[in-house]
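Consider this one:
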Amino acid sequence: MLPEFTARGLRVSVIKHAHHGFDLDKPGKDSWRHREAGATQVLMLSSDRWVLMHELRGAPEPTLDEQLLLLEPCDLVLIEGYKAAAVPKLEIHRPSHGKPPLWPESPHVVAVASDVGAEELAPDCPLPVLPINEPARIAEFILDYLDAR
């Protein structure tokens, strides 16, 4: 979806929630040693990019609203995860994975992108069912949905 939105001239940011720990750093590097020594924040930068790592050190995980405030101004923020957050969601659902869909239980799902058609997905689905392999159609739906709000 990112290439689809950026090709339209949009500035897009992404928030991805991980349900498990992760580390972008490598043991033995200076930045890793600084964090291990107790630094709360380590900012690494080069001529190509920068990253700010923040150690929670027992503090609560920031809310989605708090995380959004950390982002620079942009046209669109894509959020991965946060199934319970009260934000509009496009559910990605592949029946072949054997997991139940979220849309029947989540009032925040506004459409479903799937690798099967609406009849095969669920004949009673009241939401738009979009073809998962057609990112241009999904992008159009998202932008139309946002304009309608």
